[in-house]
Amino acid sequence: MKVIDFHCDTMLKIFESNQEAGLKENEFQVDIGKLQQGQVLAQFFALFFELDLVQEKKKSPFEHTLEMLECFEEELTRNSKDIALAKGFEDLVKNEKAKKISAFLTIEEGEALEGSMDNLSYFHQKGVRLITLTWNHENQIGFPNTRYKSQDRGLKPFGKEVIEGMNHLGMLIDVSHLSDGGFWDVVKLSKEPFIASHSNARSVKPHPRNLSDEMLKAIGNGGGVTGLNFAHYFLSSDGRSKIEPMITHMRHIINVAGSEALVFGTDFDGISGELEIENIGEMQQLIGAMEKGGFSTREIEQITHKNGLRIIREVLG
Ligand SMILES: [Zn+2]
Predict the structure, then answer these.
(1) Residue 148 has what pLDDT?
(2) Could you tell me the distance, in angstroms and rounded to a whole number, from the CA of residue 13 to the centre of ligand 1?
(3) Among 16, 123, 125, 152, which residue's Cα sits nearest to residue 62?
(4) The model scores a pTM over 0.90
(5) Are 205 and 249 in contact (CB under 8 A)?
(6) How far is the CA of 267 from the centre of ligand 1 (A)?
(7) pLDDT tens-digit profile of 193-237?
(8) Which CATH number covers residue 174?
(9) How many other CB atoms are found less than 10 A from the CB of residue 112?
(10) CA of 235 to the centre of ligand 1 (A)
(11) Residue 247 domain boundaries
């Protein structure tokens, strides 16, 4: 079964290894061999950074993101036989025909824009097609959802401009990590379906990073999707990342938001600890468990790739 994964942090690991590790084969949770083994059609690669660490080093978030972007481009060039950038649906189809994995480029931390709409256009031109508006820090776009205290705060004026700009450019707005107030502003302002690339159900595992049933419904009603996150914090209180709670979250999300509203957002290389699905190469084991868990073939096709293909086509073109 084909798979699309909307979130991994592998590029940060490669970037931080100073060229020691590469995309072809590495000890991380995502590399080309594992992507092939997992039958992955498209992998979204986040340019992720911790804003406080970058600011401590007095580095510009924009420049830092560009450095990571260059590292990503080098990896694609080095592995052009097996993987290629995709900016939209047609690229994905073309890559699939050429037996190549599609790599979508994303930014996780909207402060990469440094409050400039020109920087948004620049990143779009470089191939970025999804932006996770915040990580766990306040930025010029809005507030994070890691701390309940900022949970009600909405988007800032620049954040509202970014929504309009991303709609205009044809980019996926990602609300994972965003405050609940910011989420509801996106619901109000976005003219296109949006994504929570790596968030689970709050009523299954209470955690501010997960989405309430009302939020899940709003995503489903708007034609958006949420990506199942494999981090144990967002799955259960067990301290391990197990298949069983993944099934419970998936069933719940489908019941509340509809079977069109769920995709995968594994968070691989952003997660650690004991993992039942240890890396992207083991995705077919999860799909086997979904079959046993009572998901219909239609639902499995939707979750694994068809919902992803639809939103890519609708929003990115
Ligand atoms: Zn994240």
Answers:
(1) 65
(2) 14
(3) 123
(4) yes
(5) yes
(6) 7
(7) 999 999 999 999 999 999 999 999 999 999 999 999 999 999 999
(8) 3.20.20.140
(9) 28
(10) 14
(11) 3-316
